[in-house]
Amino acid sequence: MTSHENYGIFRECLSSAIVARSEKPTSKRRTKVKRNGRKEVTVTKTEFVSSERANPEELAEFIDFIASETFDSFPEDLKTLSYAEIQHDADLAKKYIPLDKDTPLDRAVLDSICIVTPVDVTDSLSVYGLIPDSADFPDFISPVLLEYISSVTTGPPAWSTTKTDACEICERDWIPLSYHHLIPRGVHAKVMKKGWHDEWMLNSVAWLCRACHSFVHRMAGNEELAREWFTVERIMEREDVRDWANWVGRVRWKAT
Question: Which branch of life, at top level (predicted)?
Fold first, then answer.
Protein backbone atom coordinates (compact mmCIF):
# COMPACT_ATOMS: atom_id res chain seq x y z
CA MET A 1 0.00 0.00 0.00
CA THR A 2 1.08 3.60 -0.49
CA SER A 3 1.44 6.03 2.38
CA HIS A 4 -1.59 7.90 0.98
CA GLU A 5 -3.77 4.79 1.22
CA ASN A 6 -2.39 3.99 4.66
CA TYR A 7 -3.12 7.51 5.87
CA GLY A 8 -6.81 7.02 5.03
CA ILE A 9 -6.86 3.82 7.05
CA PHE A 10 -5.05 5.43 9.99
CA ARG A 11 -7.47 8.35 9.94
CA GLU A 12 -10.43 6.00 10.19
CA CYS A 13 -8.86 4.13 13.11
CA LEU A 14 -8.07 7.38 14.90
CA SER A 15 -11.50 8.79 14.13
CA SER A 16 -13.21 5.89 15.89
CA ALA A 17 -11.16 6.50 19.04
CA ILE A 18 -11.75 10.26 19.04
CA VAL A 19 -15.47 9.98 18.32
CA ALA A 20 -15.88 7.49 21.16
CA ARG A 21 -14.16 9.86 23.58
CA SER A 22 -15.96 12.94 22.26
CA GLU A 23 -19.33 11.75 23.47
CA LYS A 24 -19.76 13.07 26.98
CA PRO A 25 -22.53 11.07 28.64
CA THR A 26 -24.68 12.60 31.36
CA SER A 27 -25.72 10.13 33.99
CA LYS A 28 -27.77 9.54 37.07
CA ARG A 29 -26.81 7.35 39.97
CA ARG A 30 -29.30 4.96 41.46
CA THR A 31 -28.77 3.26 44.81
CA LYS A 32 -30.68 0.22 45.93
CA VAL A 33 -30.35 -2.40 48.60
CA LYS A 34 -29.98 -6.04 47.72
CA ARG A 35 -30.51 -8.71 50.32
CA ASN A 36 -27.86 -11.38 50.21
CA GLY A 37 -28.90 -13.99 52.72
CA ARG A 38 -28.90 -12.18 56.04
CA LYS A 39 -26.71 -9.33 54.77
CA GLU A 40 -27.88 -6.18 53.08
CA VAL A 41 -25.62 -5.02 50.27
CA THR A 42 -25.84 -1.46 48.92
CA VAL A 43 -25.39 -1.31 45.16
CA THR A 44 -24.82 1.98 43.33
CA LYS A 45 -25.48 1.88 39.60
CA THR A 46 -24.71 4.59 37.06
CA GLU A 47 -27.20 4.90 34.22
CA PHE A 48 -26.27 6.87 31.12
CA VAL A 49 -29.31 8.79 30.02
CA SER A 50 -28.03 11.05 27.25
CA SER A 51 -24.91 12.20 25.41
CA GLU A 52 -23.62 15.62 24.43
CA ARG A 53 -22.12 15.33 20.97
CA ALA A 54 -19.57 17.68 19.45
CA ASN A 55 -20.37 19.68 16.33
CA PRO A 56 -19.70 17.16 13.51
CA GLU A 57 -18.01 19.66 11.17
CA GLU A 58 -15.68 20.91 13.88
CA LEU A 59 -14.97 17.35 15.00
CA ALA A 60 -14.08 16.32 11.43
CA GLU A 61 -11.61 19.21 11.15
CA PHE A 62 -10.10 18.29 14.51
CA ILE A 63 -9.71 14.64 13.45
CA ASP A 64 -8.06 15.72 10.19
CA PHE A 65 -5.56 17.86 12.10
CA ILE A 66 -4.68 15.18 14.66
CA ALA A 67 -4.48 12.43 12.01
CA SER A 68 -2.29 14.35 9.54
CA GLU A 69 0.11 15.70 12.18
CA THR A 70 0.46 12.29 13.83
CA PHE A 71 0.81 10.27 10.63
CA ASP A 72 3.39 12.68 9.20
CA SER A 73 5.57 12.06 12.26
CA PHE A 74 5.57 8.27 11.80
CA PRO A 75 8.73 6.51 10.62
CA GLU A 76 8.60 5.74 6.91
CA ASP A 77 8.35 1.97 7.44
CA LEU A 78 5.18 2.48 9.50
CA LYS A 79 3.65 4.83 6.92
CA THR A 80 4.10 2.30 4.11
CA LEU A 81 3.51 -0.87 6.13
CA SER A 82 1.67 -3.58 4.18
CA TYR A 83 1.14 -7.32 3.88
CA ALA A 84 3.68 -7.44 1.05
CA GLU A 85 6.31 -5.57 3.07
CA ILE A 86 6.17 -7.92 6.04
CA GLN A 87 6.41 -10.97 3.75
CA HIS A 88 9.85 -9.80 2.64
CA ASP A 89 11.16 -8.33 5.90
CA ALA A 90 11.11 -10.52 9.00
CA ASP A 91 12.57 -7.73 11.13
CA LEU A 92 9.78 -5.40 10.09
CA ALA A 93 7.17 -8.01 11.01
CA LYS A 94 8.85 -8.63 14.36
CA LYS A 95 8.93 -4.89 15.05
CA TYR A 96 5.26 -4.14 14.43
CA ILE A 97 3.23 -7.36 14.50
CA PRO A 98 2.23 -8.53 18.01
CA LEU A 99 2.32 -12.25 18.79
CA ASP A 100 -1.46 -12.29 19.18
CA LYS A 101 -4.38 -9.88 19.37
CA ASP A 102 -4.05 -9.52 23.15
CA THR A 103 -0.36 -8.56 23.03
CA PRO A 104 0.28 -4.80 23.12
CA LEU A 105 2.70 -3.05 20.83
CA ASP A 106 6.29 -3.35 22.02
CA ARG A 107 6.80 -0.53 24.50
CA ALA A 108 10.13 0.58 23.04
CA VAL A 109 8.55 0.80 19.60
CA LEU A 110 5.54 2.67 20.98
CA ASP A 111 7.76 5.15 22.82
CA SER A 112 9.88 5.74 19.70
CA ILE A 113 6.70 6.66 17.80
CA CYS A 114 5.25 8.85 20.54
CA ILE A 115 8.42 10.77 21.32
CA VAL A 116 8.42 12.42 17.88
CA THR A 117 4.69 13.17 17.85
CA PRO A 118 4.21 16.95 17.62
CA VAL A 119 3.45 18.66 20.92
CA ASP A 120 0.44 20.33 19.24
CA VAL A 121 -1.16 16.89 18.93
CA THR A 122 -0.78 15.81 22.55
CA ASP A 123 -1.66 19.27 23.89
CA SER A 124 -4.77 19.48 21.71
CA LEU A 125 -6.01 16.07 22.84
CA SER A 126 -5.44 17.12 26.45
CA VAL A 127 -7.08 20.56 26.09
CA TYR A 128 -10.18 19.02 24.52
CA GLY A 129 -10.40 16.51 27.34
CA LEU A 130 -9.75 13.45 25.19
CA ILE A 131 -6.79 12.39 27.30
CA PRO A 132 -6.20 13.36 30.96
CA ASP A 133 -2.73 14.72 30.26
CA SER A 134 -0.18 14.85 27.46
CA ALA A 135 1.73 12.06 29.19
CA ASP A 136 -1.25 9.76 28.59
CA PHE A 137 -0.88 9.93 24.81
CA PRO A 138 0.90 6.53 24.50
CA ASP A 139 -2.03 4.78 26.20
CA PHE A 140 -4.47 6.56 23.88
CA ILE A 141 -2.61 5.92 20.63
CA SER A 142 -1.54 2.32 21.31
CA PRO A 143 -4.89 0.65 20.46
CA VAL A 144 -5.26 2.98 17.45
CA LEU A 145 -1.87 1.86 16.16
CA LEU A 146 -2.69 -1.80 16.71
CA GLU A 147 -5.93 -1.43 14.72
CA TYR A 148 -4.08 0.41 11.95
CA ILE A 149 -1.27 -2.16 11.78
CA SER A 150 -3.75 -5.02 11.71
CA SER A 151 -5.71 -3.37 8.88
CA VAL A 152 -2.76 -2.63 6.60
CA THR A 153 -1.04 -6.01 7.10
CA THR A 154 -4.06 -8.25 6.61
CA GLY A 155 -3.54 -10.70 3.76
CA PRO A 156 -5.56 -10.55 0.54
CA PRO A 157 -9.09 -11.95 0.71
CA ALA A 158 -10.35 -14.88 -1.33
CA TRP A 159 -11.27 -13.52 -4.74
CA SER A 160 -14.89 -14.62 -4.39
CA THR A 161 -15.36 -12.23 -1.46
CA THR A 162 -14.16 -9.17 -3.37
CA LYS A 163 -17.05 -8.89 -5.82
CA THR A 164 -18.09 -5.33 -6.47
CA ASP A 165 -21.49 -3.86 -7.31
CA ALA A 166 -20.21 -2.15 -10.44
CA CYS A 167 -17.61 -2.74 -13.13
CA GLU A 168 -14.27 -1.53 -11.82
CA ILE A 169 -13.45 0.16 -15.14
CA CYS A 170 -16.63 1.68 -16.57
CA GLU A 171 -18.54 1.73 -13.25
CA ARG A 172 -21.79 0.47 -14.77
CA ASP A 173 -23.73 -1.12 -11.93
CA TRP A 174 -26.65 -2.62 -13.86
CA ILE A 175 -24.74 -5.09 -15.99
CA PRO A 176 -23.49 -8.62 -15.22
CA LEU A 177 -19.87 -8.87 -14.07
CA SER A 178 -17.17 -11.46 -14.57
CA TYR A 179 -13.82 -11.75 -12.82
CA HIS A 180 -10.61 -10.95 -14.65
CA HIS A 181 -7.39 -12.52 -13.37
CA LEU A 182 -5.09 -9.53 -13.08
CA ILE A 183 -2.16 -11.92 -13.44
CA PRO A 184 -3.41 -14.29 -16.17
CA ARG A 185 -3.37 -17.93 -15.08
CA GLY A 186 -1.56 -19.02 -18.23
CA VAL A 187 1.61 -17.20 -17.15
CA HIS A 188 1.61 -18.02 -13.42
CA ALA A 189 4.53 -20.42 -13.76
CA LYS A 190 6.58 -17.83 -15.63
CA VAL A 191 5.66 -15.13 -13.12
CA MET A 192 7.01 -17.25 -10.27
CA LYS A 193 10.13 -18.28 -12.21
CA LYS A 194 10.93 -14.68 -13.14
CA GLY A 195 10.06 -13.37 -9.67
CA TRP A 196 7.70 -10.73 -11.04
CA HIS A 197 5.26 -11.10 -8.14
CA ASP A 198 4.79 -12.88 -4.85
CA GLU A 199 2.77 -16.09 -4.93
CA TRP A 200 -0.01 -14.60 -2.81
CA MET A 201 -0.75 -12.10 -5.59
CA LEU A 202 -1.41 -14.70 -8.27
CA ASN A 203 -5.15 -14.99 -7.72
CA SER A 204 -5.88 -11.25 -7.58
CA VAL A 205 -8.95 -10.41 -9.64
CA ALA A 206 -10.89 -7.43 -10.90
CA TRP A 207 -14.64 -7.52 -11.44
CA LEU A 208 -15.43 -6.30 -14.93
CA CYS A 209 -18.34 -6.21 -17.34
CA ARG A 210 -17.84 -8.38 -20.41
CA ALA A 211 -17.07 -5.39 -22.65
CA CYS A 212 -14.33 -4.07 -20.36
CA HIS A 213 -13.00 -7.57 -19.75
CA SER A 214 -12.57 -8.06 -23.50
CA PHE A 215 -11.01 -4.61 -23.87
CA VAL A 216 -8.34 -5.39 -21.26
CA HIS A 217 -7.32 -8.55 -23.11
CA ARG A 218 -7.18 -6.62 -26.39
CA MET A 219 -4.94 -3.91 -24.95
CA ALA A 220 -2.09 -6.24 -23.92
CA GLY A 221 -0.95 -9.85 -24.03
CA ASN A 222 -0.88 -12.04 -20.95
CA GLU A 223 2.78 -11.46 -20.12
CA GLU A 224 2.45 -7.70 -20.39
CA LEU A 225 -0.71 -7.79 -18.29
CA ALA A 226 1.15 -9.76 -15.63
CA ARG A 227 4.22 -7.49 -15.65
CA GLU A 228 2.67 -4.06 -16.06
CA TRP A 229 -1.11 -4.06 -15.61
CA PHE A 230 -1.64 -6.23 -12.56
CA THR A 231 -3.93 -3.85 -10.59
CA VAL A 232 -7.03 -1.91 -11.56
CA GLU A 233 -5.25 1.29 -10.51
CA ARG A 234 -2.43 0.63 -12.98
CA ILE A 235 -4.88 -0.23 -15.75
CA MET A 236 -6.78 3.01 -15.17
CA GLU A 237 -3.56 5.03 -15.55
CA ARG A 238 -3.73 4.35 -19.29
CA GLU A 239 -5.32 7.07 -21.38
CA ASP A 240 -6.84 4.57 -23.81
CA VAL A 241 -8.55 2.79 -20.91
CA ARG A 242 -9.97 6.02 -19.50
CA ASP A 243 -11.24 7.02 -22.95
CA TRP A 244 -12.83 3.60 -23.34
CA ALA A 245 -14.43 3.78 -19.88
CA ASN A 246 -15.91 7.22 -20.60
CA TRP A 247 -17.39 5.96 -23.84
CA VAL A 248 -18.67 2.55 -22.86
CA GLY A 249 -20.04 3.92 -19.58
CA ARG A 250 -22.58 5.85 -21.66
CA VAL A 251 -23.65 2.79 -23.63
CA ARG A 252 -26.97 1.67 -22.23
CA TRP A 253 -29.82 -0.45 -23.48
CA LYS A 254 -33.26 -1.37 -22.28
CA ALA A 255 -33.67 -4.48 -20.23
CA THR A 256 -35.51 -7.25 -22.03
Answer: Eukaryota
